[in-house]
Design brief:
Blueprint (H helix, E strand, L loop, with lengths): L23 H12 L12 H25 L4 H4 L2 E6 L11 E6 L2 H20 L17 H12 L1 H5 L4 E2 L2 E2 H13 L1
Antiparallel strand pairs: 1-2, 3-4
Helix pairs in contact: 1-2, 1-4
């Protein structure tokens, strides 16, 4: 890993103190997800379960490595490099390109680092802010795609009608306003 390019002093503030150190808690939260999955290893050949087993011995060194990456603002290129694997879909002819699903396998240590960063971002947004909008479902703890679907369903069915939104041509006025608002944002 090469150090980041030098930035003139006049153009930036020294905010290295604002970067929190990597902690065991960060790493344990990220590794917990590896325990629940049985995924194929990335280009380095190390499956997630190997990292789970090695965490006790390698934990402090891995924390130091992740802290150095955070301090330098770098995500090692090797962790971004994947191995493309084509998985054949059942019941499709082998000669058809649509018979295969592409999957990119990444190194588990890179995924660990991504989880540490994602957890820190979510904590920062929730604690320090600005917090995400109430109706934001991605990148929120305890919010899922199912929650977003249920919200859309509630807005487009009984809840909108019950609030007096009414329906015109199968689309509630509330839903029409949401669609117009979405168009205005883009």
């Amino acid at each position: 890993m090469a150090p980041p390019p030098a930035v003139p002093e006049a153009d930036h503030q020294d905010d290295d103190d604002d970067i929190p150190e990597g902690t065991g808690v960060d790493l344990r939260v990220a590794v917990r997800r590896l325990k629940a999955r049985n995924t194929a290893p990335g280009p380095d050949g190390l499956p997630g379960k190997a990292w789970v087993l090695a965490l006790e011995a390698l934990g402090p060194r891995l924390e130091g490595l992740l802290s150095a990456c955070l301090e330098r603002g770098q995500f090692p290129l090797r962790w971004k490099t994947g191995k493309l694997v084509l998985i054949r879909k059942p019941g499709r002819p082998a000669y058809s390109p649509s018979a295969y699903r592409p999957v990119v396998l990444l190194d588990e240590v890179g995924k660990l680092f991504e989880r540490v960063i994602a957890n820190r971002l979510a904590e920062h947004l929730a604690g320090t802010g600005p917090d995400l909008a109430e109706h934001q479902f991605g990148f929120r703890k305890r919010r899922s795609t199912v929650d977003a679907i249920m919200r859309v369903r509630a807005l487009t069915t009984g809840d909108a009608v019950a609030r007096g939104g009414g329906c015109f041509g199968g689309v509630s006025r509330h839903r029409q306003r949401l669609q117009l608002h979405a168009l205005e944002l883009h």
